[in-house]
Design goal:
Distance between the termini: 43 Å
Largest sheet: 5 strands, parallel
Helix content: 40-55%
Shape: elongated
Order of helices and strands: EHEHEHEHEHHHHHHHH
Radius of gyration: 18 Å
Number of helices: 12
Amino acid sequence: MTAPGAADLLSVVVADDHPLFREGLGRLVADTAGLALVGEASSGAEAVALCVELRPHVVVMDLRMPGEMDGVEATRRIVDAGTAGAILVLTMVEDDAAVFAAMRAGARGYALKGAAGADIVESIRVVAAGKAVFGAPIAARLSQLFARPRPSAADHRAFPQLSAREAEVLELMAGGATNAAIAAGLFLSEKTVRNIVSTILAKLRLATRAEAIARARDAGLGASRAEG
């Protein structure tokens, strides 16, 4: 296992409860140029703890793990704590509902466990670069998420201090979209979306994203998506 922080390497934590698969994926990461395996976890709780300790660039997270903390909840906690650069979730089948829940929790994409090693490696590199990795079922769900018209004049009256783009991002936030999903849906970089969210908070004089979402929902934004 490579020490964390090795220069010019993407540090990776692998989290999966199946020892053979975890070991095989760990070897794949360790043997790939440009990647460094810095930790392995057999549960969601272990993954969360490892990320606090190691702060990896990428976590490859199995969705289905035993115990009280599955991959979705572990993803949510890691994203909320900011202890990993990106999360790529793993699933045995294209379970779009479970994967979409992980995307809402902050994962940047997913890979199938049966995918070729080269495809998993490429997915790791893609999410590390701040981009998203989606299959057809998730793309369809994201299309539904972004299907509503752009913010109306009424939306702008509710928040006249926001630009059209800022109002659009606030609407998507209120509907439950993460920064990664907003970036993918609006063809923006995740950094740009973060900057827009920061501007929204400053203009609305709010401290947190949760406060902005609550304010937007009180004004009627994102209601149908949040209920779906």
